[in-house]
């Protein structure tokens, strides 16, 4: 049920989407390590009429290159802050891969000073140009970036919690791969909910709920859990100063965008884990399995059963998420105060 939306690796090719109305997807940060392969994979989603690529660096070359891929739909380049709103205009889905990646020795939280302003800028521009878009952030630190964006959307009067996501699909992708390898089965066969957040111990794969059932003992569960929680750092260290996961993130991000599009297209039973505004636990933002629909989140799936050790791990991560949410909201308040922005009425189309 939690298998990457329940559609076996149909990430990208979903023939029924062909029948759906035309769609615009905007990738912000499309020139980056994630942005480029993500845009390529999104290019294979049927039904996209326009793929808008935005970055601070010139996007013309990348857009020309991607426009030669034998798929229908236009690819349009947008460059610089002044072209952000045009890039977003009438977008159905906005996916944000803009911002600094980690270097060895850094925690994701250390990126907030650099990346918080990306969340503010994009949420502000979305409020003006495409307030009904589904807005999905890849940019770290996810645990703070999503609360920051929510606060900005609130100030602009365009906040709809069903439409705002932090993409945690890479945690599910990694869980499927590591557990599949350990059970000697295809990762595609593994279904597992990953809840909490997207940093260290806030990433909580519920191995007790894995389907098919995980056969290993407590030591193996502990080791796998730790590997999933630290997988991002494994890549950061292996890249030794050249950034963090890009290709696996592009794979995960394209899958998530494909699921958002399937939801918009009215497909039933599209399930994904994502970091969203939530009342399932005490912190106001939390990652859990969600059913996606035309307007984003259609249904919060109640938290699955958990083993005693998973319940303990959940209790430990909740205060971290609560603090991260407060910090993210405060970042937005401080930023907007400096720029003297308060309660701007929304300009709805
Ligand atoms: N959610 C996840 O699971 C996950 C996984 C991997 C990486 N990430 C995060 O994704 C982000 C991007 O990583 P990357 O490896 O692609 O970095 P990168 O440096 O290769 O690319 C980032 C791109 O964003 C662009 N950019 C920066 N500010 C911008 C702005 N205001 N508007 C438009 N474009 C802007 C840059 O020009 C660059 O092209 C990082 O914050 C990283 O931590 C998240
Ligand atoms: O680890 C990082 O900084 C990037 C990303 O969050 C990941 O999990 O790979």
UniProtKB/TrEMBL annotation:
Coiled coil: none annotated. It catalyses: (S)-malate + NAD(+) = oxaloacetate + NADH + H(+). GO terms for cellular component: mitochondrion. One of its GO terms (molecular function) is L-malate dehydrogenase (NAD+) activity. Its EC number is 1.1.1.37. Residues 168-331 form the Lactate/malate dehydrogenase C-terminal domain. NAD(+) binds at residues 29-35, 55, 115, 138-140, 249. PANTHER family: MALATE AND LACTATE DEHYDROGENASE, MALATE DEHYDROGENASE, MITOCHONDRIAL. Homodimer. This is Malate dehydrogenase. It comes from Drosophila suzukii (Spotted-wing drosophila fruit fly).
């Amino acid at each position: 049920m939690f298998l990457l939306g329940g559609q076996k690796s149909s990430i990208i090719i979903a023939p029924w989407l062909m029948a759906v109305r035309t769609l615009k997807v905007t990738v912000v940060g499309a020139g980056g390590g994630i942005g480029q392969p993500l845009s390529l994979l999104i290019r294979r989603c049927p039904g996209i009429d326009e793929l808008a690529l935005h970055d601070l660096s010139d996007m013309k070359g990348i857009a020309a290159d991607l426009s030669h891929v034998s798929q229908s739909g236009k690819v349009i380049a947008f460059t610089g802050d002044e072209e952000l709103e045009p890039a977003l205009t009438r977008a159905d889905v906005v996916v944000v891969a803009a911002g600094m990646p980690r270097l060895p020795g850094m925690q994701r939280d250390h990126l907030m000073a650099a990346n918080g302003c990306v969340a503010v800028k994009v949420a502000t521009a979305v409020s003006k140009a495409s307030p009904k878009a589904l807005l999905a952030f890849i940019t770290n630190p996810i645990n703070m970036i999503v609360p920051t964006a929510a606060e900005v959307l609130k100030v602009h009067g365009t906040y709809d919690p069903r439409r705002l996501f932090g993409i945690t699909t890479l945690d599910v992708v990694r869980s499927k791969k590591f557990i599949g390898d350990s059970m000697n089965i295809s990762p595609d066969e593994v279904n597992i909910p990953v809840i909490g957040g997207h940093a260290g111990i806030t990433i909580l794969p519920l191995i007790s709920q894995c389907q098919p059932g995980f056969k290993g003992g407590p030591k193996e569960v502990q080791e796998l859990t730790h590997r999933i929680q630290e997988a991002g750092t494994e890549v950061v260290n292996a890249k030794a100063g050249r950034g963090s996961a890009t290709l696996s993130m592009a794979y995960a991000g394209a899958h998530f965008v494909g699921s958002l599009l399937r939801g918009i297209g009215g497909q039933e039973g599209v399930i994904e884990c994502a970091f969203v505004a939530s009342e399932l636990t005490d912190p106001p933002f939390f990652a859990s399995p969600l059913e996606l629909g035309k307007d984003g989140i259609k249904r919060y799936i109640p938290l699955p059963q958990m083993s005693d050790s998973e319940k303990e791990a959940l209790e430990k991560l909740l205060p971290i998420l609560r603090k991260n949410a407060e910090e993210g909201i405060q970042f937005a308040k401080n930023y907007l105060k400096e720029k003297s922005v308060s309660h701007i009425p929304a300009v709805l189309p």
